[in-house]
Amino acid sequence: MSHQFQLFARPAEGSLERILRTVRARGFEVQDMSVRLEGGRYHVRLRVGGQRDPGMLARQLEKLWDVEHLAALQAAPEAREPMGSRVSAA
Amino acid sequence: MPADADTASPHRSPDGRPGNGAWAVLEVLKRHQVETVFGYPGGAIMPLYDAMAQDASPIRHILTRHEQGAAFAANGYARASGRLGVCIATSGPGATNLITAVADAHMDSIPLLVITGQVPTSLLGTDAFQETDVLGLSLPITKHSYLVRHVGELEAVLEEAIHLAQEGRPGPVWVDIPKDVQLASVRLSGFVPGVKAAGEAGTPDEDALERAHELLAAARRPVIYAGGGVALGHAVPAFRDFVARTGAPVVTTLKGIGLLSPDDPRNLGMLGMHGAPCANRAVQAADLLVVVGARFDDRATGRLAAFAPEAQVIHLDVDPAEMAKLRPPEVALVGDLNHLLPRLARPLAIEAWRDQCARSRQTEGFRLPPQRPEGGFPALRFLDALSRRAGDQTYVACDVGQHQMWVAQYYGFSHPRRHLTSGGLGAMGFGLPAAIGAQLAHPDARVVNVSGDGSFMMNVQELATLGRYGLPVKIVLFDNQYLGMVRQQQALFYEGRLSSVDLSDNPDFVQVAQAFGIPARRFEGADAMEAAIRACLETPGPLLLHLPIEREQNVWPIVGPGMSNDQMIQEDVA
User: Which domain holds residue B522?
Assistant: First the structure.
């Protein structure tokens, strides 16, 4: 199953590698990715495949210090969001 | 830019004081009240060591005998003190030797600042002597990491790194500094960036709090499942008040041991693979789990699908990424436990359940087995007796293996910070350098390293550090001449085929210690226990106690691979 994310990240050294290794290490594979440097930050569009909860991956990506904003572009049907407070890394 | 910089690289500023990047590192550390650092010098970090040599009011530098020892000592310092640990090494092998201890800090959320030298920027990417891609190596094992290419960035990077290591969910942050950046001239601005906390949770969700209250009020069999996040969040008093107000039974992870007194009737002990039967049974029967600063680690849960099958979950943690990572909670409360726990603390009408758990604690808590006359030195009884006589202010740093579980089961801790253990990574070799760090954090406290013959050899060189600084650490070395935990699992789960676990060619540990200038004594047999305890408690200075134990002693109970926590093996069938 595919999931799409859009995120903005500081263009710090290693920030794209962190994003990619988080995707891999959390059990997903990159299916498509585009990166543009816009206004002094990376604008990343990412499509990943995997059987795990994409909400889990989103939270792990948001946790990266370089990631300033993340949005899921495609809702995941099986994702179960717990009720409660959410925190953005922005 | 927060600092003025040029690349003229005068080693000294016009007034004669070092004014280069290396000097700036020390100044920023002092700004944050760093008093002790652990390290090992080498080519690419020499400017920093030179700055230390010229510093009129130097930070205390502890020279270990291996970079891994330095990082584990800083790790132990941070665990025992709750403060930032700092370790320093050179590029290449210096940096790679740090990795195990940094990974350990990452797994256990320990605030660590890692500083390494790097080859000069002009040589980066050329496969230069002692060049490794430290930033790349650091990515999976740090909270964040930096390669500082310009001295003008150095102050802001260090400020951010120190902040990040300690804020929210703590962790290691690595700053890699090329040699020319260390040598470049810089003037500090004193500017402290206003860094927003990544784990800052703001105001708790009121709807979620209300839902949590509803679940708590409706629960008939609630259990509090608490982990290392409580002490890391400096929330032990708030946690204890929460338990007192609710009266709910408590199980803890390995890192949560000490959150409640071992004698507290609500304390059911450690859960999981080697947990107390009463703890595992309570969780399996619970209709509500209140998870506080814990993360559903597989060693705690056993087979996740069968873990607490009847329970709804309220999960409290500072890290939003822990929510639904493994077990989706009915209510997620993200934030500072000091703020969240008081909002949930109300008395619960669960007298029957509380009584049931208290009875179970009496019958299915950890029990000392009968001592067999031929059974060698009584390790479990020794740990039980030592904990009763050593006092609440004793710090115990374990290594990894059977002895680690025996400490968790039989040593009664009064606070999680007294128990230094490599929980997530399970890194053999942790214990001795971590004990050194704890002793330096608490010079007047009693510090004991409990080790096994396998683990001890992994950082045995740090006996030299112990001797150099005259630290009164006591080393309790249980020697079964096996990699005991691996042997036990081969015996139980691999049809008894023992493979590469025999250590019967161990050196004479008493002679080894003495060769490093550390006094050492051997205590053999059950009758030697009292003398060993007295030696441990009464000997001034460092001491190694070599304690040969029964070779095939096991850790009980044990939950086998892929099994659920209600399938504990409790009998010695190996």
Answer: 379-555
